[in-house]
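Methods: holo model generation. Sequences were used as deposited, without trimming of termini or removal of tags, and paired with ligand SMILES retrieved from the corresponding compound records. Each pair was processed once, and we did not select among multiple samples. The sequence and flavin-adenine dinucleotide SMILES for this entry were:
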Amino acid sequence: MATPEIAVVGAGIVGLSVAFALRERGVAVRVLDPGTPGNAQSGGASRIFRHAHDDPRMVAAARASRLLWREWGDRLGIETVSGDGAVAIGDAVPRRLAVLRDDGGVPARALDPGELAALLPALAAYEGPAMIDEAGGSIRTEAAVAALVAALGDAVVADEVLAVRPRDDGRVEVVAGGGRRTYAGAVVCAGRGTAPLARAVGVEPPVALAAHIRMTFPVRGPAPDRLPCLQDSSGAFGETGVYAAALPGNGLYGLGIAETVAAGADGALADAAGLEALAARTCAYVARALPGLDPEPTGARACWVTELPWGPDGVAVWPAGGALFLAGHNLFKQAPGLGVALADMATGATPSLDLRPAARLGAAAG
Ligand SMILES: Cc1cc2nc3c(=O)[nH]c(=O)nc-3n(C[C@H](O)[C@H](O)[C@H](O)COP(=O)(O)OP(=O)(O)OC[C@H]3O[C@@H](n4cnc5c(N)ncnc54)[C@H](O)[C@@H]3O)c2cc1C
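and the model returned the structure below.
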């Protein structure tokens, strides 16, 4: 067997997408991860796919990824994103709609209260600004991860990377539990494991590590044919950063409040009880805002969040010789496009996304 040329560290959705994109262009690849692929930040059964972002470059990136999700889904024989759309309510709507209108490539429009109630009958009465992105929807996270892992076959190896060492000749030595090996390049997409590996070679992605909790609530009555995703920044129901996405089958809604409990660089939580408080607020929000759901959750998933300072959608790559270190948050929807851009960078091609930290891709408004 040919020696793999590129090592991908981490088998979350981003690492799997990088490896798949490298394979597409005939580059031999090895993906190293000590855990179950897709079980860290990429874990859980749904994510929101939305085009709406403050940064117009992210809207264009989301459009490119949406096309790739469709294309990869067709080739892998799975649905990758539901056709249910993504609804947003709150004061951010006019600003986000303006960015989408300028882009011109996204079927998004404002909703009046009657249209909103018809689209999302589970929601309590709401009269403020609302919109739908018809090309958004629920990402079929587990199907996507499973299909990419199957497509990559024995290129995915159960092993933990202890160090990534760029060499003077441009190659990269990867020290893993199962042995040390030299590759033409390495792409590190290790989620919360990226910053420690980067720091060891003098690179400092300014990642703020925090913990978050997301819960699953049953839909009352029969599962609806259509259950759009929801982002609520309105405050009308007592919270301003709520997101939700249906699980496959539309009988369950995965929902969280986009607040976190800070952690030190070593992962020590400042206030572990803060997660319980967040869980209680999440249930109370559902009781107020979503009478169409049972506010008794059927599940909860605690997870790490790795945000960059310029915004919750921020993403960038820090190079060190032949090694690339990716950091950011809210990356699931963008994974196919990031995979292609990182495959470009790893093979010396010009990437379609400007992922230099100075570009501050995904910057928040204002
Ligand atoms: C609750 C929640 C809700 C979210 N909602 C959305 C959403 O609606 N839409 C959206 O687009 N995004 C959303 N996100 C963000 C998105 O899920 C993540 O940005 C994305 O899954 C990150 O993928 P990743 O591959 O970079 O990281 P991960 O999935 O964390 O994968 C990293 C992998 O690296 C491995 N690893 C770590 N250290 C090492 C090492 N030393 N050696 C080898 N392997 C290592 C880990 O085991 C892991 O499998 C949400 C995230 C959370 C937590």
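The chain is about 25% helix and 25% strand.
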